[in-house]
Amino acid sequence: MTCTLFELRAADGRAFSPFCWRARMALAHKGVEPALRAVRFCDIADIGHGATTVPVLLDEDAVVRDSWDIAIHLDQRWPDRPPLLPTEGDRRMAQFVHQWTVTQLHLPIFKIIAADIWDALDAQDQPYFRASREKRLNATLESVRNVQAGNLAQLRANLAPLRGVFSTQAFLGGAQPLYADYIVFGALQWARVVGQVKLLDGDDAVSQWFERCLDLHEGLGRREPAGV
Amino acid sequence: MTCTLFELRAADGRAFSPFCWRARMALAHKGVEPALRAVRFCDIADIGHGATTVPVLLDEDAVVRDSWDIAIHLDQRWPDRPPLLPTEGDRRMAQFVHQWTVTQLHLPIFKIIAADIWDALDAQDQPYFRASREKRLNATLESVRNVQAGNLAQLRANLAPLRGVFSTQAFLGGAQPLYADYIVFGALQWARVVGQVKLLDGDDAVSQWFERCLDLHEGLGRREPAGV
Fold this sequence. Notes:
The structure is a homodimer of 228-residue chains. The first copy, chain A, is α+β, with helices and mostly antiparallel strands and 228 residues long.
C-alpha cells in the first residue's frame, strides 16, 4: 500500500519546492507515508506519465500530477482520515488562498530568493533555471538580489490578512490546520529551506503560526534543514 | 415582521459605507427588505443600544451591531432561505476574505477617495471626519488625493487573487454569490458611490465580477447612483 511522491530537490538533497511541500504536508495530514523520489528540474520528463511539473503522486493505479489534485485525491482515497478540505466552503477558501499565495507571496518571495535557489541547485539544473527565470523576471538573478529590501517590505505588507486571522485562531483551518494552511506554509518553507534571508521577525504572528506548522506531523517541516 | 437597518449616508442621501453595503446585500440575499434609517457619523450615538458604529440591525428583539454578526444572525433567523455562509469552511473563508479586504483593499481605496468622502458628507460630519481621518493618515485629505496614482496601482496589484478565481468561476461563492462576495463588493461599492475616480478598466475580470454583483437582487447595488 505504498505510494510514491516525486519532489524537487536541491544539489544537497533538500526539498524546497513550495508545491511539493503542500503535497508532503497533505500526505502527513492523512497519515500517509510516501516513498520519496528526488528529482531535479532536468529529470521531470523522466518521471513519465505525462509529468511536466512536480509534485507527482503515484498511488496504486492513480497518477496525480498537481498539488491541488493530490489534496482532492487524498480526501477521496482516505475519507475516514482527517479531511484536508472538510466542506465545499473549504474548497472555495483553499482556491482563494491559493490565488492569494501565488500572486501576493510567491512573487515577492521568488524575487528575494531567486539567486539563492540558483546557488542551491544541482549544476545540471542551473542553466535551465537561470535562463527561464531571468526571462520571467526580465532581469538577472543577481540584480533582483540587489533590490531585496523592497521585496521584503512588500512581502511583509502582503501578509497582513494572516495577522488578523491569527489574532483570533491558531490556523487558517481554525484550531487545527487544513489544506489552506499547507498552501501558505509551502511558500514560507520554500524561503526557509533555500533562502539566505530571514523573512519575518520572531514576534510576527505569521512567524509564530509558521513555527506551529513546522511542529506539525512530528516536526516534518522542521526536519528539513533551514538555509539560514 | 419588519426589521430596521441603520446605515451611513452622505449629504445627498446616498449610502456609501462598505460595511453597510455588506449588510444590505446580506439582507437582500435572504429576501429580507429592511426599513432603512439614514444616519450621519454625528447621529450614531443617537441610535442607542450601545451603537458606536454602523450598520446596526434591529430585528424584533435582536440588536445586531456589526456586519459580520448580521450575516450570522440572518442565517440563524432564516435557516430555510439561501445561506450566506453555508458551511464552516465558508465562515473560515469569509473571515480570511474580510481580513484581506480591510488590509489590502480598504486601505488603498480609502487613500484614493478620502477627500471625495469629505466632499460628499453632510457639513455636520465634515469636521469629525477630517480630524479623525487626517490623524489616521498622518496627512491632509488633500495631500493623499495628490498621490492617487500610486494608491491606484497598489490597489490593482492587490486585486490579483480575484482575477485568478474569476478565471474559473463567476463568484467567490462559485456559481452563485455568498457572503464573501458581499465583503469585497462593499469595498468597491464604497468607491463607486462616493469616489470621483474609476478604479478598474472595464476588461478587468474584477470589474466584470463587480458588474455581476451590481445586477444582483434586482440591481440593488446599481440603483445607488455612482459618483462618476
